[in-house]
C-alpha cells in the first residue's frame, strides 16, 4: 500500500506471524553490519528476525508501538556479520502485536560499522539537557550514524563545531549559541537524550531559517510522533531566522530521547531548512 512515510513509496502491510520475505543481495565487503528496518505498528508484542543463508543473525527484533499504522520509526540491530559475496536474506515475521499485526514495513537497510553498542548515556557533553530548557540543534547525541543521527551525505559541509557527517555552520544570530544544523535533506534525523524534570504538556519553540516552501519536519519522543508534520516557513534567507511553536506535546518525567526528523523538502530546492534550537517550555 502507499506509505505515508518520508520519501513516500510503498509499504508491506497486514502482516501475520509465519510470513516471510526473501531478498538476494550482494555483499560488497566482509565485515560487521547494522541492520535497520523502517516500521509502523499498533500494539505491543510483535517481533521479527533476519536470517542470512538460513542462519538467524539477529534474534528477535521488537516492532514497537509507533502510535499508528502509518507512523514510522526505525529499529536497528548491530553486530550482524556478513561475508563478501551473494547471499539470501530472509525477514521472518515471528509474533504479532496485541492488535493482531506483525507491523508494516517500508524498507530494510544494512550499513557497515562497529558492533560496539553506544555508551549508556550518549548525550552530547555527557549530561542530558534538563527540560524545561533549550536543546541546541548542533548538540545531538554522540554515537555516530544510525545511532545519534542519519545524514544523507558524508562529511560536515559547514566544517564547524563537530566532526562527522552532520552539516553544521556558524551564525551571528544571538539566539543560536553560535551554530546551526543546515543542508538538511528528507529522511535525515537527529537524536537528543534529555532529562524531563516535570510531567506535563509542553510547547516547543523551534528556531528555523529557510528559503522556499513546502518543507516539513516532525518531533518524536521515544519513537512516538508528538508533533505531526510541522511546516518550515520561508524566512527569506538561510541565515535569516524565525521562531515557530509546536504546542500540546506531552512529556513524562525521566530520561527521554527526542528526535528531530526531516519529512518533506521545499518545492524550490532540496532543503528542509536550517535549525538553531528547540526550546521546551
Number of strands: 21
Category by helix and strand content: mainly beta
Low-confidence stretches: 114-120
Termini gap? 39 Å
Helix content bin? under 10%
Mean pLDDT metric: 92
Features:
single chain, 281 residues, mainly beta, 7-stranded mixed beta sheet, 21 strands, 0% helix, globular
Folded structure, characterized:
It contains no helices and 21 strands. The protein is mainly beta. A hairpin with a 2-residue loop joins strand 16 (216-221) and strand 17. The chain has strands at residues 20-27, 31-41, 47-52, 55-56, 61-62, 68-82, 85-95, 104-112, 129-131, 133-136, 149-150, 168-170, 179-181, 189-196, 200-210, 216-221, 224-225, 230-231, 237-251, 254-264, 274-280.
Give a topology summary.
Elements (H helix, E strand, L loop, with lengths): L19 E8 L3 E11 L5 E6 L2 E2 L4 E2 L5 E15 L2 E11 L8 E9 L16 E3 L1 E4 L12 E2 L17 E3 L8 E3 L7 E8 L3 E11 L5 E6 L2 E2 L4 E2 L5 E15 L2 E11 L9 E7 L1
Parallel strand pairs: 9-14
Antiparallel strand pairs: 1-7, 2-6, 2-8, 3-4, 3-5, 3-7, 10-21, 11-14, 12-13, 14-20, 15-19, 15-21, 16-17, 16-18, 16-20
Task: Write a short abstract of this structure.
This protein has 281 residues and is an all-beta fold.
Amino acid at each position: 500500500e502507499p506509505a505515508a512515510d518520508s520519501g513516500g513509496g510503498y509499504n508491506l502491510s497486514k502482516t501475520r506471524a509465519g510470513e516471510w520475505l526473501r531478498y538476494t543481495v550482494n555483499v560488497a565487503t566482509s565485515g560487521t553490519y547494522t541492520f535497520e528496518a523502517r516500521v509502523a505498528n499498533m500494539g505491543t508484542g510483535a517481533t521479527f528476525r533476519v536470517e542470512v543463508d538460513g542462519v538467524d543473525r539477529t534474534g528477535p527484533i521488537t516492532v514497537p508501538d509507533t502510535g499508528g499504522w502509518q507512523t514510522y520509526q526505525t529499529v536497528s540491530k548491530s553486530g550482524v556479520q556478513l561475508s563478501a559475496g551473494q547471499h539470501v536474506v530472509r525477514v521472518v515475521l515471528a509474533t504479532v502485536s496485541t492488535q493482531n499485526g506483525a507491523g508494516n514495513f517500508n524498507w530494510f537497510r544494512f550499513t557497515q560499522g562497529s558492533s560496539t553498542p553506544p555508551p549508556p548515556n550518549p548525550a552530547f557533553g555527557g549530561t542530558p539537557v534538563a527540560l524545561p530548557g533549550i536543546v541546541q540543534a548542533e548538540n545531538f547525541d554522540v554515537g555516530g550514524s544510525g545511532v545519534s543521527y542519519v545524514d544523507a551525505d558524508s562529511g560536515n559541509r559547514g566544517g564547524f563545531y563537530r566532526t562527522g557527517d552532520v552539516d553544521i555552520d556558524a551564525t551571528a544570530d544571538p539566539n543560536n549559541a553560535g551554530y546551526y544544523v543546515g543542508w538538511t535533506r528528507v529522511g535525515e534525523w537527529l537524536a537528543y537524550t534529555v532529562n524531563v524534570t516535570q510531567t506535563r504538556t509542553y510547547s516547543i519553540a523551534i528556531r528555523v531559517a529557510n528559503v522556499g516552501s513546502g518543507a516539513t519536519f516532525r518531533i518524536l519522543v521515544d519513537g512516538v510522533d508528538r508533533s505531526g508534520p510541522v511546516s518550515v516557513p520561508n524566512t527569506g534567507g538561510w541565515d535569516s531566522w524565525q521562531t515557530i511553536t509546536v504546542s500540546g506535546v506531552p512529556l513524562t518525567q525521566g530520561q527521554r530521547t527526542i528526535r528531530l526528523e526531516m519529512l518533506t523538502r521545499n518545492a524550490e530546492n532540496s532543503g528542509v531548512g536550517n535549525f538553531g534550537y528547540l526550546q521546551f517550555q
